Amino acid sequence: MRAAPHLLVIGGGVAGASVAWFAGQAGARVTVVDAGQHAASHVPSALVNPVRGQSGQVARGALEGMRLTWALVDTLEKAGIGVPHGQTGVLRPVPDDRTRQKFGRNLPPDLPHTWLGPDQSPAPLTPGWPHALWLPEGGWLDGAAFTAALLALAGADVVRARAQTWDARSVTLENGEVLCGDAVVWCGGSVGAAWAGEPGTHRAGTLLTLDRAVAGVPVSFGAYLAPARTGGVLGATFEAPTATWREPALPAASLRWLLGRADALTDLSGAQVTGRWSGTRLSGLVTGRGADGVWRLGGLGSKGFLLGPLLARHVAGDVLAGLRV
Ligand SMILES: Cc1cc2nc3c(=O)[nH]c(=O)nc-3n(C[C@H](O)[C@H](O)[C@H](O)COP(=O)(O)OP(=O)(O)OC[C@H]3O[C@@H](n4cnc5c(N)ncnc54)[C@H](O)[C@@H]3O)c2cc1C
């Protein structure tokens, strides 16, 4: 009998954990090498939102990706690993008729949605928003819990270390140990791209954790308010893009910007800030096999939990299909 293929995955964020999950489901043996540092996937509350940004773009695969993410949450829960989440719907207020038309042009017919007037909103909005798009299948989830649960249930061996170098079939750790496998998949995210000296577009942002969910459902335009495991969050990735990863910080001007965006969305009075989480995401989606033979899944931007698992399923499938030929 042929031995199961052995995949070495660098990075244990949502990309790497999802690759490990799907490869494990397909019968592969998986080793995940994860430094466990600066994972954007540890975002305390991530939106699962198919209609993006201030232009309402809908990425290819958004509906399928959203449903797959919820299906995975369900599978994890049935296996006894609860992931704090709410498939509550997502509310996207828009500031004017022109933006509503722009959003409308981007909405695929098969994406369930409803346009609401100011008095129909399921969350209290600051006066002045003429329309809000309601996306009933969206919601939020705890990024760290989702990622950890996937990794735990994937049955992968997890090596807590930083990979120093790698090629198509091996990974050398910082301590000089060499791991060998049948394929290597790089899922190092923003910090990993910087460690590897690769060019990229990095964008930092911050979530303020709040003692309560100000709006009972996620509300997003510019910044987002969402429920979280305990209380709620106010956040966005909003710092100017940089060509490399930098230790994320929250300058006073950024804090003011964030609070201003929140005030524009809803009434924050009475909510207490309990802490802060800052992270950096990498833009410029890369999937597939590079000229060096190393597979990659990276550059998930602000769609890590919308598209990460779906793209990981494709990558894991392609890696294993290549090994079985
Ligand atoms: C403030 C903020 C808010 C966000 N909000 C949302 C949201 O609402 N919805 C959404 O879908 N997405 C959101 N995102 C984006 C999402 O978090 C990312 O797209 C996603 O987490 C990226 O996952 P990843 O697995 O590619 O990388 P990461 O999660 O960064 O994981 C990479 C892992 O690889 C490890 N690693 C890197 N290099 C090496 C190496 N050489 N050796 C060993 N380990 C290595 C790192 O230590 C890390 O643990 C947000 C991001 C930020 C910063």
From TrEMBL:
This is FAD dependent oxidoreductase. InterPro entries: FAD-dep_OxRdtase (IPR006076), FAD/NAD-bd_sf (IPR036188). GO terms for cellular component: cytoplasm. Keywords: Oxidoreductase. PANTHER family: GLYCINE OXIDASE (PTHR13847:SF289), SARCOSINE DEHYDROGENASE-RELATED (PTHR13847). GO terms for molecular function: oxidoreductase activity. The keyword Oxidoreductase applies. Residues 7-316 form the FAD dependent oxidoreductase domain.
